[in-house]
């Protein structure tokens, strides 16, 4: 190989307009870091909330502008083909931001728990006197806002990445802030830190698989670009054993983020230990990002070899749906219950993805948005049921809530019905979309398992409903906090979108349909 | 009308475009009475009578408007009821001579009985509610006869059923009344189910239940489908009209207040079956086997009703079986088809008057005798209740067919027509009808003599029976006038011609030369029946039931084993089926379900143990999964 000369490296042309949303998010994250450094303590919280929301709204507006100016129809590659600006990419970026805004509302809430859900100084030893003091007095640290902006920016980069290296960098950009954010709970700090360490270790482990996969594929195709891999899959003279090992390793890294069985093991522990607003962010936005990456890799790089790998991923989808559902049955903690539900839902999205045709893309995109809003609202409600130790997440503590807080119990029941896929909720339309796409793609077995597992899942959901309405509240039953304006807004948005997309799914399905074309 | 002709209805204009008011007025009144509650107690009965009276006046107006029109059938589309894809149902009204006739019967007789009920229900604290149900009934019955599709008719059909159950169980503190309501409900369900299936057949084969569509399309259907439709409609009609084998609920329905028995279970609702068959005449005309079955059901039921009627000692039950038997005559007539359709409707109208009058008379007797209904405990009442005696007497003469009262004009032609069917059928059905006339004369004479003549056989607590108040007497008198005159007026007023647009031919089958002889024979049979009864019962009867000496008497007292029949043929298999279903559900389905749940729960608890909380074991899981995935992909590739 010739030594690379400086003269050989030319700066690739960059279409700054097309990647403006990502730049806005990452740029505003930097502004947030600066604000953290230079602003007085009292001003930080309002400024950070403002920066965070403005960044996301501006990013969203730019995305809409790009979509309307036909980037969705005439997709482009930019930055030396490292980034793709196409329909699915823009849709996924938009989805990340829309869900991110709602999650930011939950993160910014400070009236439910005095000072917010996050610790003031994460470095203080958990359980020490200083810790008790800060838990009582001090408001949350505000680094959480730039961290979440970095994570969201990384996710947007991730779903637009058009080669494996960019994708890997983006993966790390959005993962690292999430590891940190998991450790920031104000209450039950040991659990929170344990969750963060687990997430970090296992995340690093799965990243290693991902990088190893990149190496294999580079060896196979001589390039890390998706398009080149797709071409090599047809015409390369090399053994495609390399390609399949590489594909397996890549898939493992991505399925880890998407929480598919058997790479789901971290999910319940991390969802339970992380501060609930962060859990909400992970369950909605991270899922969108992970499946964005999966969609792009499967549909762009490995479309032509699908007959070989589809059965294997299909088995993973079945396992994900069934094991997620079965394990949800015996959960006693509402956050763990929702975690297993999120695992099973990953299986449903995967079912849609495996349709391997256009409506597979659009139905998966649709499902990700519907699920994201519902799960945000569900975790938002979890933050409201509290006793003196913080959130009361054990299911037995939820007994009789229907009598104490009829509105909360009513909304939660509605969300559970949506998870269970009852008509007039977005859970129904979403499942209908992915299942019918999978049927159209010939994946009947997957659909059968999907329907069976959603029957199974209805049990744990309805058990919560039964608990809330048909059981006597305990004497020391938790109180239900009055949600502040931010949480109320987040809950209202989540519940209304769940209803709206259940009654009138075509609003979003049409958008998803017109966006469902990858640039290759 | 022959089958080739198209059934077509003009759309309603002018006065007739408000024909929906007939249904709406009683319905609104029912809503007011039932929703306002006690606030309406003081004037509820007045509103109840006024609304049905208003409907009657409107009915008269529409009737004369229709007479003045060239085309004798108008339809009125009200609004779109159901529209799902190509499935479309409209609310619409058909006003033609047949429905116009029924409207007058329902509102006319209905109004009289409403007025009577003002007096009869005076002491009842729930009188307002009673009138609410009564109005509800009237509006549903009007919908039944005015609907322009089988579905509309069915809605009315269920509405009258509802009102009927509510009113049968009116004295809800009496277990017998509650049971009777339940019985009526269950037995009617059998018929209703058949009616529904008939409508499904129409939808499946013709795509609609509109009368016009169905009647125009029925000729092109295969005979099997037509026959199935006809028989299913017949089963529906049998349920509502108390015909064999669904007759057993009607006598029990007498547990309701007497005005209910008179209006719903004698004059109007129970004749809905006759209406249904007459209305569906193009269907029945298309299947002669179906018609023969209708005739057979009618003939059998009319004899059954007569025989049981002879053995009953409860005045209202005798009248109830008499109703069963008289409706049997109507079924016989509409089954004969052709000109006999009009005869059936004629008998229906005449029967509406005299049977309502008889029931009101019975109610008047009960009113004066402290709610006694046992014939053996009456006797000699003519002296104390002259008006009741006279009105019941006229009704009695009318029902047994003494000329020139209305029964003579309505029943004799049916007997005639039955003989005119010819062949063995003519003989069998004709003789059955003739024998029925004799038996009717017997049991009605028994009823009349035991009630009003002979010695007093009253219970000890009755000292001085009293005549009913004027508000009850007046309807009785008017109905008696109807009993006397209706038959003749209708026959000579051209009633059969009036119905011509509905049934086509009005030529009544009959052997013209034998007409006089037939009248002579049937009169002779009637008089023999009267004479036997008079000789047997003029001196009264035993005060308690005597041991039955012959198997016929025993069978008749047991309602000809109708209840036993139902219990063994329907109830016992039903119970066994229920028990089997419960067993299967409990052990089989529940077993599978709980078993599955146990499997899921068990595997869930076991899988949970894998979630140890240790990062090392998680990493091992991921590594194992990775190895399996890689191995599987390679296996797919290599294998």
Automatic annotation (TrEMBL), chain A:
Its EC number is 7.1.1.-. The chain crosses the membrane at residues 14-35, 47-69, 89-108, 144-161, 167-185, 197-221, 241-266, 278-299, 311-330, 337-358, 364-385, 405-426, 446-470, 482-504. Keywords: Cell membrane, Membrane, NAD, Quinone, Translocase, Transmembrane, Transmembrane helix, Transport. InterPro entries: NADH-Q_OxRdtase_suN/2, ND/Mrp_TM. Pfam families: Proton_antipo_M. It is an enzyme of class 7 (translocase). Its main location: membrane. Belongs to the complex I subunit 2 family. NDH-1 is composed of 14 different subunits. Subunits NuoA, H, J, K, L, M, N constitute the membrane sector of the complex. NDH-1 shuttles electrons from NADH, via FMN and iron-sulfur (Fe-S) centers, to quinones in the respiratory chain. The immediate electron acceptor for the enzyme in this species is believed to be a menaquinone. Couples the redox reaction to proton translocation (for every two electrons transferred, four hydrogen ions are translocated across the cytoplasmic membrane), and thus conserves the redox energy in a proton gradient. This is NADH-quinone oxidoreductase subunit N. The gene is nuoN_1.
Automatic annotation (TrEMBL), chain B:
Signal peptide: none annotated. The chain crosses the membrane at residues 12-36, 43-64, 98-118, 130-148, 193-214, 220-239, 290-311, 318-342, 348-366, 387-406, 426-453, 474-495, 515-537, 615-636. Coiled coil: none annotated. Gene3D superfamilies: 1.20.5.2700. GO terms for biological process: ATP synthesis coupled electron transport; electron transport coupled proton transport. It comes from the Bacteria. It is a multi-pass membrane protein. It holds the Pfam family Proton_antipo_M. Residues 148-433 form the NADH:quinone oxidoreductase/Mrp antiporter transmembrane domain. One of its GO terms (cellular component) is membrane. Keywords: Membrane, Transmembrane, Transmembrane helix. This is NADH-quinone oxidoreductase subunit L.
